[in-house]
């Protein structure tokens, strides 16, 4: 078998061919969003980029992504690809050459995802990273069903951004601290969604790089802060932010204070409401359902919970609108409250990473905080599940722990299933997404099970408990309901019905996965957070998990990584 790098490159080329076959697929409004950004960055001076509102699809990503769009626009202009795609207009524009150009840009920039995986696998020991294990990792990342659906059908650039994240994470595992910090700072200047991971990065870098930790018991040297390393770290991050914001703030005719104010308004438009038009499968989907149910019950039983002054024409959670919607019974949730709840939900992970700043604790912390941000964040899109899923793929394949593999299986299976309503029902694209969801579930179950990374009921690898089997059966029914039954028999009467069924059912499973992530944090804390010592524990549902020891336990000693 070829070496790791050769195999991954060949695998990537094979998946690229599949991506090109998806080129004629359904395109969401995100396609026109990015097309308009090409036109804005090409046609206007930089100080006008964040102020232009000719189209409703205004530029609302950080500066590095805007510069990336400028590079793409300049490339298209140099190739004389389609001059019309670079003209600012309120009306959408999607000629065949424009579609091909933008589809190719996503496929080509996925090279960054490949590079991220190539560097990451170098950090996996040979005894853990068997050829079949690397193949499973490639399937779950380079050929991710979620990325195929969201990037290469729906249209986004998540593969490129996740590649930068993986490079940053791998750099830290290799001890390239400043490079890892700089890459993550760059990622924040590409897409602010990744701010949800910043607390773990901050705590890990502060604890592992900026402090000298206590030596083994019996020695009296105390922890002490290292100001020089802290200044190096801060300077690296600030230099990246300066590189991103400098051209925007210092351009001719630019007023820095106005630019920063406008940038903040574009990046954080809290007027879009608690949930998206299609609810992401998280806590707020269940909150909206509870509010709808209580409102209906109050009307039927004439209970005094409803706001009688509320106009009957006021939008509701099922109106499919992107705006602030007031609950009918439950108290409203403000952006500040959602932010506080999200930060509080991250505290266990941050405490673990502070006390045990090891690569494994850091990776588990990233996974857990990414998932917490998805579950409690304000106006979260369903596509944001890709971040914890892809981090979970690295977690599952980098350690011999069935609890990690099982956690990834459930999160990815439920998360990818929740993406089906993104595609027009009864269309070839919906069928393609339906197949990709099933292929992922079967492929990850087989690949992880072959590596002994799933555990199982009664000690049988990959076996499910009765409760898990019932949930999977329900998930299959949900997929058929969304893909076939609802559009055929209930679309006219209940237009939001398919989205509601998907969001609510997937939310219940996501809550279970989220709860399991806290149990794994506690288990990691109990074991001391060492990189070896795979002592075992319980899998999802309380089963004993299968683990393999790859090295001696380091116990509870805190590891200094430089």
TrEMBL record:
Its EC number is 2.4.1.-. It holds the Pfam family Alg6_Alg8. Residues 526-562 are annotated as: Disordered. It is a multi-pass membrane protein. The keyword Repeat does not apply. Pathway: Protein modification; protein glycosylation. It is found in: Endoplasmic reticulum membrane. Keywords: Endoplasmic reticulum, Glycosyltransferase, Membrane, Signal, Transferase, Transmembrane, Transmembrane helix. The keyword Signal applies. InterPro entries: Glyco_trans_ALG6/ALG8 (IPR004856). Its main location: endoplasmic reticulum. It is an enzyme of class 2 (transferase). One of its GO terms (cellular component) is endoplasmic reticulum membrane. The chain crosses the membrane at residues 101-121, 133-150, 193-212, 228-250, 336-354, 361-378, 384-400, 407-424, 430-448, 469-489, 495-515. GO terms for molecular function: dolichyl pyrophosphate Glc1Man9GlcNAc2 alpha-1,3-glucosyltransferase activity. Residues 1-17 form the signal peptide. One of its GO terms (biological process) is protein N-linked glycosylation. PANTHER family: DOLICHYL GLYCOSYLTRANSFERASE (PTHR12413), DOLICHYL PYROPHOSPHATE GLC1MAN9GLCNAC2 ALPHA-1,3-GLUCOSYLTRANSFERASE-RELATED (PTHR12413:SF2). Belongs to the ALG6/ALG8 glucosyltransferase family. This is Alpha-1,3-glucosyltransferase. It comes from Nannochloropsis gaditana. The lineage of its organism: Eukaryota, Sar, Stramenopiles, Ochrophyta, Eustigmatophyceae.
């Amino acid at each position: 078998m070829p070496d790791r790098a050769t195999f991954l490159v060949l695998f990537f080329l094979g998946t690229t061919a599949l991506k090109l076959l998806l080129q004629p697929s359904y395109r969401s409004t995100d396609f026109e969003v990015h097309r308009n950004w090409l036109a804005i960055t090409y046609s206007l001076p930089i100080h006008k980029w964040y102020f232009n509102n000719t189209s409703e699809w205004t530029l609302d990503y950080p500066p590095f992504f805007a510069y990336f769009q400028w590079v793409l626009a300049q490339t298209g202009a140099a190739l004389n690809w389609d001059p019309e795609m670079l003209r600012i207009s309120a009306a959408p524009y999607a000629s065949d050459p424009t579609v091909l150009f933008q589809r190719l840009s996503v496929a080509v920039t996925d090279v960054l995802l490949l590079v991220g995986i190539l560097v990451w696998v170098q950090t996996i020991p040979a005894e853990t990273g068997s050829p079949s294990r690397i193949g499973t990792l490639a399937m779950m990342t380079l050929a991710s069903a979620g990325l195929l659906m969201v990037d290469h059908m729906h249209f986004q650039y998540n593969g490129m951004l996740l590649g930068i994240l993986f490079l940053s994470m791998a750099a830290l595992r290799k001890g390239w601290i400043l490079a890892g910090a700089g890459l993550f700072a760059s990622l924040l200047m590409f897409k602010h969604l990744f701010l949800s991971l910043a607390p773990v990065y901050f705590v890990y870098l502060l604890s592992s790089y900026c402090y000298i930790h206590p030596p083994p018991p019996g020695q009296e040297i105390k922890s002490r802060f290292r100001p020089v390393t802290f200044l190096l770290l801060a300077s690296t991050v600030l230099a990246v932010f300066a590189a991103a914001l400098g051209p925007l703030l210092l351009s001719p005719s630019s007023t820095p204070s106005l630019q920063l104010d406008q940038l903040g308004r574009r990046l954080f438009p809290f007027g879009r409401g608690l949930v998206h038009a299609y609810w992401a499968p998280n806590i707020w989907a269940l909150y909206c359902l509870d509010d709808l149910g209580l409102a209906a019950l109050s009307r039927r039983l004439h209970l005094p919970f409803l706001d009688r002054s509320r106009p009957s024409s006021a939008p509701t959670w099922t109106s499919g609108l992107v705006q602030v919607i007031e609950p009918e019974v439950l108290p409203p949730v403000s952006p500040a409250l959602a932010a506080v709840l999200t930060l509080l939900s991250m505290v266990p992970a941050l405490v673990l990473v502070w006390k045990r700043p090891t690569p494994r604790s850091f990776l588990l912390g990233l996974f857990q905080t990414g998932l917490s941000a998805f579950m409690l964040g304000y106006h979260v899109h369903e596509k944001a599940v890709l971040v914890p899923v892809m981090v979970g793929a690295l977690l599952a394949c980098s350690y011999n722990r069935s609890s990690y593999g099982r956690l990834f299986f459930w999160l990815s299976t439920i998360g990818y299933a929740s993406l089906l309503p993104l595609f027009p029902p009864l269309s070839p694209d919906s069928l393609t997404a339906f197949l990709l969801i099933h292929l992922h579930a079967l492929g990850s179950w087989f690949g992880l099970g072959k590596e002994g990374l799933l555990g199982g009921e009664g000690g049988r690898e990959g076996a499910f408990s009765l409760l898990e089997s019932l949930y999977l059966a329900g998930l299959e029914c949900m997929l058929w309901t969304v893909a076939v039954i609802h559009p055929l028999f209930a679309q006219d009467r209940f237009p939001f019905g398919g989205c509601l069924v998907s969001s609510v059912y997937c939310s219940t499973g996501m809550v279970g996965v989220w709860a399991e992530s806290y149990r794994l944090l506690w288990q990691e804390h109990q074991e001391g957070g060492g990189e070896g010592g795979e002592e075992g524990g319980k899998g999802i549902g309380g089963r004993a998990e299968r683990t393999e020891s790859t090295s001696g336990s380091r116990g509870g000693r805190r590891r200094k990584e430089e």
